[in-house]
């Protein structure tokens, strides 16, 4: 290991410094170093390099990520899981008894008598497309679910093999679209699907066998549709005969021709001038049932202004600001509105229930089977009513469920945002900026057609983030009170408690509103922004460094 | 060798008690142990693996392994040595599984310059580069070279332990370390003309 010039080499120096030379070799080196300045300097430089490396490697400049603050858990069920499971079970039971059962009862009352709501919707209603298609739909859904579960389980491995994941994903997608079904759809419906055309007209005398689906700016149906009419359009005018249902998403709808099935609409203004054999369900700003119109089934409307001048054979359920009734209502009516006017030509053959801010104005000529059962709708919270507290518990449950979802789906993000909440000043500052600037920016972007595709998702995400804000502030509050125990179980307990306290604060008049609607959304939103920035920023810096 | 750096104020007796509590299934003790060592293990992984997210994942996985394998730990040996052994095996497996470019699996002294490097240039190289630049340079090294430096200078492993982890002969560890130092010097000197050949200047 000694060079021809008498000096020892670098390898020998390193091994000597690391104590890896045998005694004989080591004493040779020591003896040489005593007399040789060059080798002494080399040894010194190597030794310093060792210290320098150690110092550079152990430097503690990067903080440990928030998600690593919690220890990974390998043991089975923690008490927190059982609590969460119990709460979820309770929540599901409450949803069933509080929402779904009354809803189903209402639906059945409104004429969906053939079974439960889903059965009606899928198996006998608009969405039913025959057993073959439905079976393949179920297969597709099952495969989709399996693929989702598979991807979820393998996600960590697949991060490593993005290309493989991509190919497998494409393969799964290809398999998930069974060929025969795709072909069958194309054959049957190709002539009845209309998209991209600004104006679609089905001329008088023309007939469409089967369903008709249209996506167009203006849609006019003067001919006959043998099946259902499914439309997404701005203006829809139906003068012809529709033998199935009408399902529409539109701005303005006029139905002048007869409909043998149901009419279900989401739009801005609806005018019904003809006979609808079954039920009408409409969510629209203005709804007019003309005096010539007749609805064979029930009528369910959510609206601002409703004018019911025609004839309805079934029940009427209406929620809105102003409801005018001038026609003949065959069964019970239930109205929830600011104002209800019963005109001189009106007739109500069943019971009339009305909940509103002022008593109904009933014209002397109106024929009512029984007096109107009026309930005064009080504005603002009614602290004496148990329903008020029940509702608070509901709201708490909803935010807690979202918190659980975030904790399980994105624990790293959850812990990061909760950490970011600790930086109170910057979080509230950024939050204030984003709380007000985001909707303004999104609306400006929405003004252009192309911007819609950016603006609407941005607004949706914004709404979700504002709603989720309380979860992170709640988690922060919980941590203040319960301490930062390790693991997901305690984290769930902290969120539960924090959200409960925020709910309680929200019940205080004035202060509650200020905290719940301004401070907490600002704070949480700011924390989300900070955490996202922290996540994105290091990648951006790395990308710049790589490009340089 | 300063293996106590990660244990902070904890004495050997405290650690032994903590370990026995963890073995007995005490979750709080496990949390304490985790908090004590997770930052050091995270930084260790951060030096070895290319992305921060990889280091985060690896830290979690290493501690899962630690908890499962704690029964096999021989308490007469230092705990940190065992911990780093588990961590380095995990990281080395991870790197090997995803390695695209293969390092030279064998090598000997012939591939190293045998003459003296210039000590003054070496010192200037050290003086003019920050810890961060060193870590950036380290990240550009081949996996095995980087691994060798981190095991030696971060985890304070002996030549035997390094040889065992990397699956090489003990006599080859010195070569690996010296070659890694040269590669790091070259990486740092690259683009900086006054340091060109700093790693192999005449002596």
Structure description:
The complex is a heterodimer of chains A (548) and B (203). Chain A is of the alpha/beta class and 548 residues long. Chain A has 14 helices and 24 strands. In chain A, the strands form 3 sheets. Chain A has a 15-stranded parallel β-sheet that branches. A 6-stranded parallel β-sheet of chain A has the order 11-13-16-18-20-23, with no helix packed on it. Chain A starts with 9 loop residues before the first helix and ends with a helix. Chain B is an all-alpha fold and 203 residues long. In chain B, 64% of the residues lie in helices and 0% in strands. Chain B contains 9 helices and no strands. Chain B has helices at residues 12-23, 27-48, 52-69, 79-98, 119-127, 131-139, 143-153, 159-166, 170-189. Chain B starts with 11 loop residues before the first helix and ends in a 14-residue tail after the last helix. Chains A and B meet through helix 1 and helix 3 of A and helix 2, helix 3, helix 5, helix 6 and helix 7 of B.
- Main beta sheet of chain B, described? none
Oligomer: heterodimer
Tell me the β content of chain B: under 5%
Helix content of chain A: 40-55%
Count the beta strands of chain A. 24
Largest interface by Cβ-Cβ < 8 Å: A-B, 49 and 56 residues
The ordered string of helix (H) and strand (E) elements of chain B is HHHHHHHHH
Task: Summarize model confidence as the mean pLDDT of chain A.
Answer: 77
Count of helical stretches of chain B: 9
Q: What is the alpha-carbon Rg of chain B in Å?
A: 19 Å
Could you name the key traits of this structure?
heterodimer; A: 548 residues; alpha/beta; 15-stranded parallel beta sheet; six-stranded parallel beta sheet; 14 helices; 24 strands; 52% helix; 20% strand; disordered C terminus; B: 203 residues; mainly alpha; 9 helices; elongated; disordered N terminus
Topology:
The complex is a heterodimer of chains A (548) and B (203).
Chain A lengths: L9 H8 L5 H13 L1 H22 L20 H31 L7 H8 L6 H30 L1 H15 L2 H11 L3 E2 L4 E4 L4 E2 L3 E10 L2 E2 L3 E10 L2 E2 L3 E4 L2 E4 L7 E10 L2 E2 L3 E10 L4 E2 L3 E4 L2 E4 L2 E2 L3 E10 L2 E2 L3 E10 L4 E2 L3 E5 L4 E2 L4 E2 L4 E4 L9 H24 L1 H11 L2 H23 L2 H34 L5 H19 L4 H37 L1
Parallel strand pairs in A: 1-4, 2-4, 3-5, 4-6, 5-7, 6-8, 6-9, 8-10, 9-10, 10-12, 11-13, 12-14, 12-15, 13-16, 14-17, 15-17, 16-18, 17-19, 18-20, 19-21, 19-22, 20-23, 21-24
Helix pairs in contact in A: 1-3, 2-3, 4-9, 4-13, 6-7, 9-10, 9-12, 9-13, 10-12, 10-14, 11-12, 11-14, 12-13, 12-14, 13-14
Chain B lengths: L11 H12 L3 H22 L3 H18 L9 H20 L20 H9 L3 H9 L3 H11 L5 H8 L3 H20 L14
């Amino acid at each position: 290991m000694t060079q021809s010039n008498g000096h020892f080499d670098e390898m020998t120096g390193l091994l000597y410094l690391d104590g890896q030379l045998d005694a004989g070799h080591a004493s040779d080196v020591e003896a040489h170093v005593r007399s040789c300045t060059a080798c002494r300097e080399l040894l010194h430089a190597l030794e310093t390099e060792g210290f320098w490396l150690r110092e550079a490697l152990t430097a503690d400049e990067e903080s440990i990520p928030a998600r690593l603050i919690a220890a990974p858990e390998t043991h089975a069920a923690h008490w927190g899981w059982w609590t969460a499971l119990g709460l979820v079970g309770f929540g599901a039971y409450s949803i069933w008894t509080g929402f779904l059962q009354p809803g189903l009862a209402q639906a059945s009352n409104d004429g969906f008598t053939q079974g439960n709501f889903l059965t009606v919707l899928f198996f006998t209603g608009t969405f039913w497309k025959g057993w073959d298609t439905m079976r393949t739909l179920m297969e597709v859904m099952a495969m989709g679910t399996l693929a989702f579960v598979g991807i979820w389980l393998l996600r960590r491995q697949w991060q490593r093999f993005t290309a493989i994941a991509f190919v497998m994903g494409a393969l799964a997608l290809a398999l998930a679209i069974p060929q025969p079904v795709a072909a069958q759809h194309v054959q049957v419906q190709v002539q009845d699907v209309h998209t991209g055309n600004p104006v679609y007209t089905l001329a008088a005398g023309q007939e469409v066998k089967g369903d008709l689906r249209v996506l167009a700016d203006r849609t006019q149906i003067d001919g006959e549709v043998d099946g259902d009419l499914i439309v997404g359009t701005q203006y829809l005018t139906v003068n012809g005969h529709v033998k199935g249902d009408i399902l529409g998403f539109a701005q303005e709808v006029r139905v002048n021709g007869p409909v043998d099935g149901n009419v279900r609409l989401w739009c801005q203004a609806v005018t019904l001038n003809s006979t609808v054999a079954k039920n009408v369900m409409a969510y629209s700003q203005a709804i007019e049932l003309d005096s010539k119109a007749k609805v064979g089934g029930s009528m369910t409307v959510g609206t601002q202004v409703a004018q019911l001048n025609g004839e309805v054979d079934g029940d009427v359920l209406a929620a809105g600001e102003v409801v005018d009734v001038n026609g003949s209502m065959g069964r019970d009516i239930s109205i929830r509105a600011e104002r209800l006017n019963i005109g001189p030509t009106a007739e109500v053959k069943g019971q009339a229930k009305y909940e509103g801010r002022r008593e109904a104005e009933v014209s002397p000529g109106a024929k009512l089977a029984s007096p109107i059962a009026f309930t005064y709708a009080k504005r603002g919270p009614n602290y004496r009513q148990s329903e008020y507290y029940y509702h608070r518990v509901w709201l708490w449950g909803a935010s807690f469920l979202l918190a659980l979802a975030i904790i399980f789906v994105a624990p790293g993000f959850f812990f990061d945002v909760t950490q970011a909440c600790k930086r109170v000043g910057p979080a509230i500052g950024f939050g204030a900026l984003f709380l007000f600037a985001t909707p303004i920016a999104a609306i400006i972007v929405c003004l252009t057609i192309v911007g819609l595709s950016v603006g609407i998702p941005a607004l949706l995400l914004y709404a979700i983030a504002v709603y989720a804000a309380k979860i992170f502030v709640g988690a922060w509050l919980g941590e203040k009170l319960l301490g930062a125990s390790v693991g997901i179980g305690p984290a769930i307990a902290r969120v539960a408690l924090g959200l409960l306290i925020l709910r309680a604060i929200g019940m205080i008049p004035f202060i509650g509103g200020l905290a719940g609607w301004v401070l907490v959304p600002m704070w949480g939103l700011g924390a989300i922004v900070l955490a996202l920035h922290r996540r994105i920023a290091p990648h951006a810096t790395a990308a710049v460094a790589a490009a340089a | 060798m300063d293996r106590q750096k990660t244990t902070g104020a904890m004495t050997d007796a405290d650690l032994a008690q903590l370990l026995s509590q963890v073995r007995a299934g005490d979750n709080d003790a496990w949390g304490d142990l985790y908090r004590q060592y997770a930052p050091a293990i995270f930084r260790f992984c951060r030096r070895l693996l290319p992305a921060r997210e990889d280091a985060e994942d690896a830290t979690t996985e290493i501690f899962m392994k630690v908890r499962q394998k704690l029964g096999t730990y021989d308490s007469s040996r230092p705990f940190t040595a065992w911990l780093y052994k588990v961590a380095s095996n995990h990281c080395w497996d991870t790197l090997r599984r995803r390695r695209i470019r293969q390092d030279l699996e064998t090598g000997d002294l012939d591939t190293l310059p045998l003459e003296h490097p210039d000590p003054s240039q070496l010192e200037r190289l050290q003086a003019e580069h920050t810890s961060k630049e060193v870590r950036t340079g380290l990240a550009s090294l081949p996996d095995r070279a980087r691994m060798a430096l981190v095991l030696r200078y971060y985890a304070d492993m002996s030549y035997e332990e390094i040889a065992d982890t990397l699956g090489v002969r003990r006599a080859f560890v010195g070569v690996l370390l010296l070659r890694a130092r040269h590669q790091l010097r070259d990486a740092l000197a690259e683009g900086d003309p006054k340091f060109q050949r700093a790693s192999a200047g005449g002596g």
